[in-house]
Amino acid sequence: MTSTGSTGGTFCTQCGTSVSPGAAACTSCGFAMHTGRNNCWNCGAHTAMGQAVCTACGAAVVGGSATPGSKSKIAAGLLAIFLGGFGIHKFYLGYTTPAVIMLVGGLIGVCGSFLLLPGLLVIATTVIGFIEGIIYLTKSDAEFEQIYVQGTRDWF
């Protein structure tokens, strides 16, 4: 996993080498980003499995690798499947504008479901939420983290 730390750099968690933000793999060791557990995401210092805090910079280390602001793929997927018509999963992931769009669409749809257009609106937001939930759950943890937590993909 890589991240842009408070030191201003992004580091491979496998070897600790500085890498370009958004790189798919470390150019030094060839390790795929978001899969290593040996170095701090914030400063690149070596970390041991089970270490809770980086001894060099104090960044939180979870499960032997630092994961700043991680969101659960399972929680996001289930929220999308069961409450997706109201955009709750988008609020959970921090995508406020798409969340408000889905919430308003879902509420208009539910409140005016006896009319054709609002009824179609609630169906559309529910289908979007369901599809996004399936997509979240079928991604690997690393892909989910990179695309939806660290990235900024608002839709699908």
Question: Could you please describe the fold and organization of this structure?
Answer:
The chain is mainly α and 156 residues long. The chain has two domains: 68 residues, no CATH class; 78 residues, no CATH class. The protein contains five helices and no strands. Helix 1 runs antiparallel to helix 4 and helix 3 packs across helix 4. It is elongated and about 60 Å long. It starts with 72 loop residues before the first helix and ends in a 6-residue tail after the last helix. The N terminus is likely disordered.
Show the helix and strand layout.
Layout: H1 73-83, H2 88-93, H3 96-111, H4 116-138, H5 141-150
Helix pairs in contact: 1-4, 3-4
Brief digest:
This protein is an all-alpha fold and 156 residues long. Helices cover 42% and strands 0% of the residues. Helix 1 runs antiparallel to helix 4 (116-138) and helix 3 packs across helix 4.
Class by helix and strand content? Answer: mainly alpha
Average pLDDT rating: 77
Number of self-contained structural domains: 2
State Rg.
19 Å
Question: What does the overall shape look like?
Answer: elongated
Number of strands: 0
Taking the alpha carbons of the first and last residues, their distance comes to: 22 Å
In terms of per-residue confidence, which ranges show pLDDT below 50 for 5 or more consecutive residues?
Answer: 1-8, 63-68
Largest sheet, described in full? none
The portion of residues forming beta strands comes to under 5%
**Residue share in helix:** 40-55%
**What is the chain-wise order of helices and strands?**
HHHHH
- Helix count, DSSP H or I runs of 4 or more residues: 5
